[in-house]
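Hi there, hope your week has been kind to you so far. Please have a think about how the structure follows from the sequence. I've dropped the whole record in just underneath, so have a look:

_____
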Amino acid sequence: MLDCDPGIDDSLAILLALASNELEIKAITTVFGNAELKQTTKNALNVLELSKAKNIPPVGEGSGQPLKGTCVDLARGVHGNDGLGNRNLPQPKLKVYTDDGIGLIISKLNSGQVDTIIATGPLTNLARAISRNPEVLRYIKTLYIMGGAVFVEGNVTPHAEFNFYSDPDAADYVLNSNIPIVLISLDVTHKVNVTERHIEPLKKYKNRLAEFVVGVVEYSIEYHRAYRGAVGAHLHDPLAVAIAVEPKLGSYEWLSLGVDCTNRRGMVQVMSGTKNVRFVKEFDVEGFLKLFLDRIGGAIEAIQNL
């Protein structure tokens, strides 16, 4: 299942997951982050509609605030006013399955329908699910997390990455919950740049999904150019899906990690204790780009041929 805060890159992660036969997406839960909760939920539903996937997973609306305090609006420029590069999509016809996203996580794990979670937003939903029902821990085979900046600078402060900054208490709690975790951090996601050259082949297709993918990627490319002087866009979240699909894309190191919840909010702390996280330290950039573009392009072409 996917736990996410769509968001441009979360939306692309959803599309990549749906286009990957190695994965069977049993549910999606939404959380605040790249936009407020109602908007991230709307975005998830719209992306599912655009995908025209044969099996649409149920969507559960999760947490609208972090474990402590209130959420901080830091992503409006990065993702646009609607979280999707100002695409301003209409109200989706799909409806939310439940407004208890935490309960949906628990039920999917307890029933055995889900044993793998890919989390690409603040970890609030997962922290609350574990706190509400600690028994779910034994059903999680692997938790893939996109978050944190371990040996590199953050993207919201010099120390912190956005997801961990948004709810550091949840991030620290989940990292130390004795779950098999694979961490995809800024250490590798900042090495991947998607440029106009990569999406140019998609422009020949004339359907809503193609227009959406090209539009959100172009928005992100322009944001990174204008505000960060970068060539291309960092699409963080699809890397977490790609690692779940093809683990050989990464090389790994076991680390003992925690998250600062005080003065350096959201900073990943490398400690000397029990090694609790399988950290992706290197990443096959070209292998990822091929997988990502082949899968997304294939999904777009399939819709074109309907």
About this structure: The longest strand covers residues 250-259.
